[in-house]
Amino acid sequence: MRYEGMIYRPPSEAYSLIVQVTIGCSQNRCIFCSMFKEKRFRIRKVEEVLEDLQDARNKYRYVEKIFLADGDALICKMTDLEAILHFIKDQFPECKQVTLYGSPRSILMKQQEDLDKLRELGISMIYMGLESGNDEVLTYMKKGVTSQEMIEAAQKVKQAKIRLSVTAISGLGGRRLWKEHAKDTGLVLSQMKPDYIGLLTLMIEEDLPLADKIRSGEFELLNPYDILIETKEMLKYMDCPDCIFRSNHASNYVNLRGTLNQDKEAMINLLDEAIKGNVHLKSEWMRGF
Ligand code: SF4
Question: What are the protein's UniProt keywords (predicted)?
Answer without folding.
Answer: Iron, Iron-sulfur, Metal-binding, S-adenosyl-L-methionine
